[in-house]
Design a protein that fits this description.
The complex is a heterodimer.
Chain A: H1 9-27, H2 30-55, H3 63-79, H4 84-108, H5 113-132, E1 140-141, E2 144-145, H6 162-185, H7 187-197, H8 199-203, H9 209-235, H10 245-258, H11 264-282, H12 288-302, H13 307-322
Antiparallel strand pairs in A: 1-2
Helix pairs in contact in A: 1-6, 2-6, 2-9, 2-10, 2-11, 3-4, 3-9, 4-9, 6-7, 7-9, 10-11, 11-12
Chain B: H1 11-15, E1 24-35, E2 38-49, E3 53-57, H2 64-71, E4 79-84, E5 87-88, H3 94-100, E6 102-105, H4 117-126, H5 131-144, H6 160-173, E7 178-182, H7 190-204, E8 208-212, H8 216-222, E9 225-230, E10 233-239, H9 240-245, H10 247-254
Parallel strand pairs in B: 3-8, 3-9, 6-7, 7-8
Antiparallel strand pairs in B: 1-2, 1-4, 4-5, 9-10
Helix pairs in contact in B: 4-5, 4-6
The chains are: A mainly alpha, B alpha/beta.
Bound molecules: adenosine-5'-triphosphate and magnesium ion.
Chain lengths: ~325, ~260
């Protein structure tokens, strides 16, 4: 029995999303299918952050690092003739282990929330430096040459055909959101929400908050690792850019724009911001970053809760007025 | 409940000093806490019998909350030991102490503003019970505390007195052996205070209680033995009448111009 019951409408929404994901490739060009696939991969990454930040209040700038490690793990195993399936699993493990280690130090060392934010960012930037300095071919793991800032190319794809790959990514995102929502409503998820609201109170009831935080943080890292592996598979390349400051901030921005805490908001935020970036790039404006920056500032000022919560509140206030 | 007469630790030696309510549940020896140069609690030897209801009073800054925070593991003592229900809990982390059976409501309200009243009770009970039984405990508490109509409301939206009840309710859902309440009636209206007294009497049937209060009316209503803290030490331990009659208490506490609020 879950302490919170999901709205009866929610499974209907899930059904609608499943149908859209299933038929969408038939309505789109191959180019669009490929393009939307990468948006969905970013949705996975955004939702992974929302699980730790939105649900448990653990803000990390390391989501891009877990993503990047997942991508590199996938590329390295593929280059060593492992199957793409095994490489994908390695990506999940890489992200999960990295997050688990950082989380263990932060939570069991009883370090502050600020420490977590700063350390995850620092580790990300260190990874950028380290992988950037592997240009010499002597830096290799088995048959995998890391390639410095040029990164690794010719990474084999999990599924070479665009449409099955789209369905795989879409299906994973669907599964993640549905199971994430169920987790949020389950007792474990409610304890995490309580930790977000007041951790001391949770401990005074006999819960080990450290363990709960570590579990969700590692899970969140593992999902980011999965997204990274899918990303490497999608483009056939990966380079240290994934560990850049811009990338680290990007994930946080997606969740901020969409609104944190619902998982849906994070996915919507990632999709819209990426779609807009893409659009601005395609009409050739030189001011893509500037426009996006202005957009963000206005978001923080006008909709500090993000798109989805603001939208839902708008809906319900209309409902009240009608009564 | 574990048996305090089980052969364990130095704790045994003290059960002989028999108190008003039978075997010892909690004992502190030489308990002290310094904050830099500030001696918040100094050398406190305190004993509470199983099933007892004790009131803790004392002027502002007497060290009552600091004492509670050491008992619940929120602050490590500078010196001394805490024995609870047959084990030494000195320096243990809060969640372990809670599992051994101490529940606490801090002076500063601490609830989960974004969670519903029901969720507060459910989470508190779910630590030791499965989901179904935790839900039953939560429902029962909602009735008992008269919060049933507010069950799905976010606690952040409740009035001050209701928030206090939610927190008291959480300590009840925990099924603790000892509940520490730091100023439970702060900000409550008179009728709310009366309801709280009735509630706590009911709780005391199965649970030992230590209650910090400034409200003299509350203390006389709830009766029980009163321990007076002053400048980090225990000044006197007696019934309310004897405490009130004590000239030293009158001078340092009541004479200090703060009988109640
Ligand atoms: N975290 C802290 N750091 C420094 N000094 C503290 C801290 N907590 C309490 N003190 C000091 O310790 C002394 C005892 O404080 P405490 O809060 O225990 O008193 P109290 O009896 O609960 O008072 P009140 O009735 O006002 O709640 C006070 O002098 C207070 O200033
Ligand atoms: Mg106090």
């Amino acid at each position: 029995m879950a302490p919170v019951r999901l709205s009866a409408l929610e499974p209907l929404l899930w059904g609608a999303c499943a149908v859209v994901l299933a038929v969408l490739p038939f309505a789109l060009s191959t180019f669009q299918v490929v393009q939307i696939t990468v948006f969905l991969i970013f949705c996975l990454l955004a939702v992974s952050l929302d699980l730790s930040w939105g649900l448990a209040g653990l803000l990390s700038f390391g989501q891009a690092a877990f993503f990047g490690l997942g991508g590199y793990a996938y590329a390295i195993l593929c280059a060593n003739d492992e199957t793409p399936g095994a490489a994908l699993a390695a990506g999940i493990v890489a992200g999960g282990v990295a997050a688990g280690l950082l989380g263990y130090i932060a939570f069991y060392g009883r370090l502050s929330a600020m420490f977590l934010a700063v350390t995850t960012l620092v580790v990300t930037l260190i990874l950028l430096q380290v992988l950037g300095s592997t240009a010499d071919p002597s830096y290799h793991i088995g048959a995998a040459v890391l390639g410095g800032y040029n990164g690794m190319t010719n990474i084999p794809s999990l599924l070479p055909e665009p449409t099955p790959f789209f369905w795989t990514v879409g299906g994973l995102l669907f599964l993640l959101i549905v199971s994430g929502r169920l987790l949020m409503a389950a007792p474990f998820g409610r304890v995490l929400a309580a930790i977000r609201e007041n951790e001391r109170r949770v401990e005074l009831l006999g819960y080990d908050a450290r363990w709960h935080k570590l579990a969700i943080f590692a899970l969140s890292g593992a999902i980011a690792g999965l997204a990274g592996a899918l990303f490497a598979s999608w483009g056939g390349f990966i380079n240290p850019e994934v560990f850049s400051l811009a990338q680290s901030a990007q994930v946080v921005i997606w969740v901020l724009v969409g609104g944190r805490g619902s998982l849906y908001g994070a996915a919507i935020g990632a999709f819209l911001v990426q779609a807009m970036t893409q659009y601005l790039g395609s009409i050739g404006t030189a001011y893509t970053t500037l426009v996006l920056g202005a957009l963000l500032v206005s978001f923080v000022l006008v909709m500090p809760n993000g798109l989805l919560p603001t939208f839902l509140r708008g809906l319900s206030s209309i409902g009240i007025r009608q009564r | 409940m574990s048996d305090a007469s089980a052969p364990s630790s130095a704790f045994q030696n003290c059960t002989a000093s028999a108190g008003p309510a039978g075997k010892t549940l909690l004992e502190t020896r030489g308990l002290s806490k310094n904050f830099g140069g500030v001696k918040a609690v100094t050398d406190v030897d305190f004993r509470l019998g199983r099933g007892e209801l004790r009131c803790l009073i004392g002027p502002n800054g007497a060290g009552k909350s600091t004492f509670f925070k050491m008992l619940s593991g929120q602050l490590p003592p500078t010196a001394g030991t805490i024995l609870f229900d047959g084990s030494d809990i000195t320096g243990e982390p809060p969640h372990r102490i809670a599992r051994l059976g101490i529940g606490i409501k801090n002076q500063v309200p601490s609830v989960w503003d974004g969670l519903s009243v029901y969720e507060h009770f459910f989470i508190a009970a779910h630590r030791r019970l499965g989901a179904r039984r935790a839900a039953a405990v939560a429902d029962e508490l909602l009735m008992k505390l008269g919060l049933a109509t507010l069950a799905r409301r976010d606690v952040g939206a409740l009035a001050h007195g209701e928030r206090q009840w939610v927190e008291i309710g959480m300590t009840m859902a925990q099924d603790a052996k000892l509940i520490l309440l730091d100023e439970p009636t702060a900000g409550m209206a008179t009728d709310e205070v009366e309801r709280t007294v009735a509630l706590l009497r009911d709780v005391n049937v199965s649970t030992s209680l230590i209650i910090v209060e400034h409200d003299m009316q509350f203390i006389s209503m709830i009766a029980g033995i009163v321990t007076v803290f002053h400048q980090g030490r225990i000044l006197i331990e007696a019934t309310m009448e004897n405490v009130l009659a004590n000239p030293v208490v009158r001078e340092v506490y009541l004479g200090a111009g703060r009988p109640g609020r």
